[in-house]
Specification:
Elements lengths: L10 H16 L8 E3 L2 H26 L2 H4 L2 H25 L2 E7 L4 E7 L6 E9 L5 E10 L12 H11 L1 H14 L17 E3 L1
Helix pairs in contact: 2-4, 5-6
Main location: endoplasmic reticulum
Membrane topology: Multi-pass membrane protein
Pfam families: SPC25
Length: 207
């Protein structure tokens, strides 16, 4: 099957495709480095959004089928107020709680990794904020890494996941350990291990 191609000048498409590739990689690492994705933040966002939609639907029904008098009843007024409150909470949740988080996962031993992605307008760089913590919350790694999308997108927009995985393994310690474990288990070079002499090419790191 042909590899889907992205518009090379569309930063949003390049970012979305890259974001979507993180979960399949992190959830299929070799034991004991496999991460189980935590959807709790996303589930709360969905709950807030669907509740607001349900309230909007109920008030629309009251207006359309029960008449104007029904819309002035206390329960409808409370529902409208609740709708605006929920939308405010929803906006706060998306921007300040999730804050661009594209993956949150937990290892069997309890360590948690959180990855937030971002891009800047008219910039070809993919930026990740990575936090890796112990089960007790102690920070083991907290760093920002970035590299051009051209590291894993070809000139015609084809996405190649292996260079992305190599970059992540070279930059994030626990993923580097997972890559070495893959090499041990397969008995040969792993596609998830970055070449030693190419790990820093085109990559800017900030701690």
């Amino acid at each position: 099957m042909a590899t889907p191609k992205m518009p090379v000048y569309s930063g949003n498409d390049l970012k979305s495709t890259t974001d979507d590739a993180l979960s399949p990689y992190l959830t299929t690492l070799p034991a004991p480095y496999t991460f189980t994705q935590d959807h709790s933040l996303t589930n709360i966002r969905f709950l807030l959004g669907y509740t607001a939609v349900a309230i909007a639907g109920a008030t629309f029904y009251a207006d359309r089928y029960l008449g104007w008098e029904a819309t002035t009843s206390p329960w409808v007024i409370a529902a409208v107020a609740g709708y605006f409150v929920l939308n405010g909470i929803f906006t706060y949740w998306v921007w300040f709680v999730e804050g661009g988080e594209v993956f949150r996962g937990r290892r069997g031993s309890g360590e948690v990794i959180s990855i937030r992605s971002s891009t800047k307008k008219h910039s070809p760089l993919y930026n990740l904020r990575v936090q890796y913590k112990t089960p007790s919350g102690k920070v083991l790694e907290d760093k920002v890494i970035e590299t051009p999308f051209t590291t894993w997108f070809s000139a015609d927009g084809a996405f190649h996941p292996e260079p992305l995985r190599e970059w992540l393994a070279a930059e994030i310690e626990v993923l580097g350990l997972a890559a070495k474990e893959t090499v041990k288990k397969t008995g040969g070079a792993s596609s998830s291990v970055a070449p030693e002499d190419a790990g820093d090419e085109g990559v800017t790191k900030r701690r």
